[in-house]
UniProtKB/TrEMBL annotation:
Alphabetized GO MF terms: ATP binding; magnesium ion binding; thiamine-phosphate kinase activity
UniProt-annotated binding residues for Mg(2+) 3: 42, 87, 227
Reactions catalysed according to its record: thiamine phosphate + ATP = thiamine diphosphate + ADP
Protein name: Thiamine-monophosphate kinase
Source organism: Piscirickettsia salmonis
Note: Reaction mechanism of ThiL seems to utilize a direct, inline transfer of the gamma-phosphate of ATP to TMP rather than a phosphorylated enzyme intermediate.
EC number: 2.7.4.16
Nucleotide-binding found in the keyword field: yes
Top-rank taxon: Bacteria
Pathway(s) where this gene product acts: Cofactor biosynthesis; thiamine diphosphate biosynthesis; thiamine diphosphate from thiamine phosphate: step 1/1
GO biological process: thiamine biosynthetic process; thiamine diphosphate biosynthetic process
Encoding gene (name): thiL
Family matches, as Gene3D superfamilies: PurM-like C-terminal domain, PurM-like, N-terminal domain
Amino acid sequence: MSKNKQHLSSPLSEFDLIERFFKRSSSLQEGNNGIILGIGDDCALLQLGSSEVIAASIDSLVSGVHFFADEKPFNIGYKAVMVNASDLAAMGAKPRWLTLALTLPEMDENWLSLFSQGLFQALAETGMSLVGGDTTRGPLSLSVQVQGTVDKDKALRRSGMQEGDVIYVSGPLGGAALGLAHRLGNIQFNHDQKEKTLELIEQALCLPQARWQLGLILKDYANSCIDISDGLAADLTHMLRQSACGAKINLADIPYHLAFSSVNLSLNEKWQYALAGGEDYELCFSMNKNNEEKLLEKLKSKNINIFRIGEVISGDDKNLNFYLGRDEIKLNLSGYRHF
């Protein structure tokens, strides 16, 4: 983190903030995980092997836009890491390094303690190291950049879909959307198992799990991949357009989040939440049918489930087509819009 100026007016200086909350065993990190020079200088120095490339991604999270103003600071720190690690997972990259730019309205040591706990728990779970960043005063927001490494010939892309590929997703969809809808008061859950259901959707919304371990496996089997952040319909459409392909998706094969069984929704409402709600942070990927059995066997040994939802069709049709059995279903879905 840069130390050339003090941004926040407080008895706790930026130097103190870094030392107390974010500089955890920096000297021990150096020499490990490719870190030549970690936190404390103007830049971090990171080793890169000759056969590898760096995969880099950055996301910004703004209070009142990406999370509620009263959200638990632990959740904010944890999710900030995981949503970025999900981008690395979609490339088949191994998560390595993270930098953090944090804007705070005031210096709140209790908030920072909880935030950093969530941040470092997610870092530990993904194998990443915090190597730098910045702080300043202003409305609460944060920007997180992550970097990972992947063999330059195996990096997954959105544009690799091929006609005849089978399409999979890595886990249940719609849980985060239901969690948000419940917080906004738009839906109510049935009393049976309500407490457990609320726990599940809160976890889906606030504590997503990046599928980076699956991503490391997929790079040897898949032709294309994307992480589902804006909703399956929107993100799969990105893949189709970049690959000049179309797709047939069977709505009966979508892995719907368990919470759907505890809320009374029409089919159209269910599809809207599951296919366009967003923030699932599962992976959607395609692969040649010849790789399907080998991948499933590999994942079975690691107790990882994936779900086949459709297939890639001719490049003459770049549309995303939904079916229920043999009947085509016309859906008007809209994913998350950033602006």
